[in-house]
Write a structure and sequence with these properties.
Largest interface: A-B, 69 and 65 residues
Order of helices and strands of chain B: HHHHHHHHEEHHHHHHHHHHHHHH
Distance between the termini of chain A: 59 Å
Strand order of the largest sheet of chain B: 1-2
Number of strands of chain B: 2
Radius of gyration of chain A: 24 Å
Strand content of chain A: under 5%
Shape of chain A: flat
Largest sheet of chain A: none
Oligomer: heterodimer
Number of strands of chain A: 0
Helix content of chain B: over 70%
Distance between the termini of chain B: 65 Å
Number of helices of chain A: 5
Number of helices of chain B: 22
Chain lengths: 150, 507
């Protein structure tokens, strides 16, 4: 337990930053118009201001109550999960669906590292088969199984 | 009255013939099997699955698309109780309460009875929910056809405020998520002036952030990151679940009768209200049974009332939630927001016009609920052994599969790498929200309704020459606004209350 609810204090501060940025941007860049003929900036400026208000409402009570321990982010899972998607996106157009699927599987498995090498290979083969069957055969989405960028 | 009944019979006929067409039957079957499957698996729920299926609906006609998505939704509620009863782990949040009595029952070797009774209760609750939707939808639509932009804005505002504040422990955080969703929905070209807003020079964002990317990022990717380290142990006594062990005793049936009816009533009511839904309905139904029981000490030790009532409640709530969604275009929860989004992808404007302009869609989907529930009844009981085996699939195999569907699904919509990167950003953001205890589900509601709200707000202001009080001049929007304001005031009061209490204690 912590003396203050720091989790909500952090959350509320983020809200205020986002709300402020939104309103600032709308105020400076987009015409506000008049209330009866609103420009593109009026609505976002209002919503941003409300968001700042909510941020305050989250922070103020949190200052006066005890809070839970701060959550520990799982950086390993975060990193490998996002990386696996990036790897897929960067390879699917140049090398095709099957290599991209295999790379995604290998990267994703590293996030919890519970499957051994053999398990990973079996999973990659299985997923490649599923990908081809469901998306290419079943739904007719045009994704080449293999490509060579030359 | 007779005209209403005749119209109803015609429409039900139309709906039934639509629902029973081979295509719709097929997608209904796919939907409920998939729903049951992911419902059984702890860690994957209806929301994740619906997000992953959203790209696929691009390749379907609108009716089978909605039929399938709906099937996943109510199928998952059927499946969720299997994990709750056998593993003491809720397969879906709506069946969390079922653990309390369901798991003790399975410890006593009565898992079979529990599984059978929850299935029967689910079917009964869902049936009543569907009937209510059939009877009331035409009346609601007739009433709301004359709504102008002011009424729409007021209604959407009420829906969002209710969703964010009524059910939530921290209303300010809920509202903040809704607002964040509205802002995310504003990214792109402004409909009226063509001005690009918050696009940061990225061309792909001019046409708004795709709903698919938001749903998949927040629910697919963020959930995977969050769940990887959550270990789920458990062992099941498979022998206790043979077919014969499912037969309930005379005492079980006698005890279940009234809880069934009460649970259904509670579920139908809370399901139709925006912001409450199946989770709350199930909790309420359990609390009511415990309160009125002659011998409350039986609860917690495998009282059959404690699984029948919540299961009837969550399924009737699932069906009743379609009432505001399909008649008014106001989604009460994130799943319903995805349904609305799927309709909009197919160029259908949600709202009272839907039933008038697309009767085949409306009544076809409605009748498919019956078909799907009957399918689930037959899938659940005879195939119980199969579902139990699915329960044992380890998460380390599941999550790479989910990620593959995330990647292909997102990529295939526009053949765009940028969409996958948007999903990554939103996935990371969703993970941060989960860590800081913000609900991404509220964000999705705001995201779907945001652009519609802005449009109606601007139109109202244009018609009223900038007079804010216009919302209070007409009786319907006035009543809605008063309701909204009282909810906001209550939320304000309750979010500041803990602070005052603590101050008192400190003194």
């Amino acid at each position: 337990m912590l003396k203050r609810d720091y989790r909500d204090i952090i959350g509320g501060s983020l809200l205020i930053v986002i709300g402020f940025g939104t309103t600032w941007q709308a105020w400076l860049e987009y015409p506000l118009g008049t209330v009866s003929r609103m420009g593109p900036g009026m609505f976002p400026a209002g919503v941003g201001a409300l968001l700042m208000g909510m941020g305050l409402l989250v922070i103020v009570p949190a200052l006066f109550r005890v809070g839970p321990a701060l959550p520990k982010p799982d950086f390993r899972a975060l990193f490998f999960v996002l990386l696996s998607l990036a790897v897929f996106a960067l390879t699917v157009d140049t090398f095709g669906l099957i290599p991209a699927t295999a790379l995604l599987t290998v990267t994703a498995v590293l996030a919890d590292n519970k499957l051994g090498v053999i398990g990973t290979v079996v999973l990659a083969v299985g997923l490649a088969a599923i990908a081809i069957l469901i998306f290419r055969v079943g739904l007719g989405i045009l994704l080449e199984p293999f490509k060579w960028p030359l | 009255m007779t005209a209403y009944l005749n119209g109803l019979i015609d429409n039900l006929g139309l709906g039934l013939s639509t629902a029973l067409s081979p295509t719709n039957l097929y997608y209904c079957f796919i939907g409920v099997v998939l729903g049951k499957f992911v419902g059984v698996l702890p860690g994957i729920g209806a929301l994740v699955t619906l997000s992953l299926l959203l790209p696929i609906t691009f390749y379907l006609h609108h009716t089978p698309a909605i039929v399938m998505l709906a099937g996943v939704y109510y199928g998952a509620t059927y499946g969720g109780s299997v994990a709750s009863i056998l593993l003491n782990l809720p397969g879906t949040p709506t069946t969390a309460i079922t653990c309390l009595e369901g798991y003790p029952m399975s410890r006593q070797g009565r898992a079979g009875v529990a599984l059978l009774m929850t299935t029967v209760a689910s079917f009964f609750g869902a049936s009543v929910g569907i009937m209510l939707m059939t009877l009331f939808s035409p009346l609601i639509v007739e009433f709301s056809l004359s709504f102008g932009p002011a009424e729409y804005f007021a209604m959407m505002l009420l829906g969002l405020v209710a969703a964010a504040s009524v059910a939530s422990e921290a209303p300010a955080k809920g509202m903040a998520m809704v607002l964040l969703g509205i802002l995310l929905g504003l990214v792109g070209l402004d409909v009226e002036t063509g001005r690009a807003r918050y696009t940061f020079g990225i061309m792909e964002l001019y046409d708004r952030v795709p709903l698919v990317a938001v749903a998949i990022g927040l629910f697919g990717v963020a959930e995977v990151i969050y769940s990887i380290r959550t270990s789920r142990p458990g062992s099941i006594d498979r022998k206790s679940i043979i077919f014969r062990s499912m037969v309930p005793t005379r005492d079980d049936i006698r005890r279940s009768l009234f809880p069934l009816l009460r649970g259904t009533g509670i579920g139908s009511f809370f399901g139709a209200l925006p912001g409450t839904g199946a989770v709350i309905a199930a909790f309420m139904a359990y609390a009511v049974e415990k309160k009125i029981a002659k011998d409350p000490s039986r609860f917690g030790k495998g009282a059959i009332e404690g699984i029948v009532a919540p299961e009837a409640a969550n399924n009737s709530a699932d069906q009743a939630a379609f009432i505001p969604t399909m008649t008014l275009g106001i989604p009460g929860n994130a799943v319903m927001a995805l349904m609305i989004g799927a309709l909009m992808i197919h160029g259908i404007v949600p709202g009272p016009q839907l039933m008038v302009k697309e009767p085949e869609l409306f009544w076809g989907v409605l009748m498919s609920f019956w078909v799907g529930n009957v399918m689930l009844l037959f899938l659940s009981i005879p195939l119980i052994g199969l579902w139990i085996r699915i329960l044992m699939i380890p998460y380390s195999l599941l999550y790479p599969t989910i990620l593959l569907f995330v990647a292909i699904g997102t990529f295939s919509v526009n053949n765009s790498t940028v969409d996958v990167f948007i999903v990554m950003v939103l996935g990371g953001a969703g993970y941060i929200m989960r860590l800081l205890d913000f609900q991404p589900a509220h964000l999705l509601l705001g995201f779907v309704l945001g652009p519609l709200m802005e449009e109606n707000f601007r139109r109202t202001m244009l018609l009223a020459h900038g007079d804010f009080l216009v919302f209070f001049r007409q009786p319907i929007s006035g009543a809605l606004m008063v309701l909204t304001i009282s909810m906001v005031l209550y939320a304000l009061w309750s979010s500041l209350r803990p602070m005052r209490l603590r101050r008192k204690k400190a003194v």
